[in-house]
Amino acid sequence: MYRTSYEVLEGNSENIRLEGEFLIRATEYLREEVYRLQEYFGNPSTDEVARVFRNGQDGQPGFDQMYNDLDEALQNIQKSYAGISATLNAMSTTVREADGPGTIVLDAVEKLVAFSTRTNDSIAVPTTQARHH
């Protein structure tokens, strides 16, 4: 079956949306698993090693900052998937709206081309005499 350009855009939009949802599910699980490890890293308020690991030292980020950065990056990726999907959907709407008049013009052009390439067939010629006033 032939798919129009707006149908292709809609299909791609849906595929990207589904990929984004898959990514969300996969990363949610992984983020939760990493977050649960925090209890094994010690208490930063009573343990110096835990404090350095969790909070960082000498300008180097610790686990907490890196975890927050990772979380923010994953949220931005998820937003990007949603934004790309929405943009493709909007493009599809624009193409669909443009296809209507475009189809009419294409039909007219095809008829004109067919008419211009016809062979010598009989063409009705008016036989009414022109009147002079």
Q: Low-confidence parts lasting 5 or more residues at pLDDT below 50?
A: none
Overall pLDDT confidence: 81
Overall geometric form: rod-shaped
What's the CATH class label?
Answer: Mainly Alpha
Characterize the biggest β-sheet: 2 strands, antiparallel
Following the backbone from N to C, one meets helices and strands in this order, namely HHEEH
**Beta-strand percentage range:** under 5%
- Name the structural class: mainly alpha
Radius of gyration: 33 Å
Helical residue percent band: over 70%
Based on DSSP secondary structure assignment, what is the total number of beta strands?
2
In CATH, the topology is named Helix Hairpins
User: What's the structural domain tally?
Assistant: 1
Instruction: Report the total helices.
Output: 3
Q: Strand order, biggest sheet? A: 1-2
Level-2 CATH architecture: Orthogonal Bundle
Rounded to the nearest angstrom, the distance between the terminal CA atoms is 61 Å
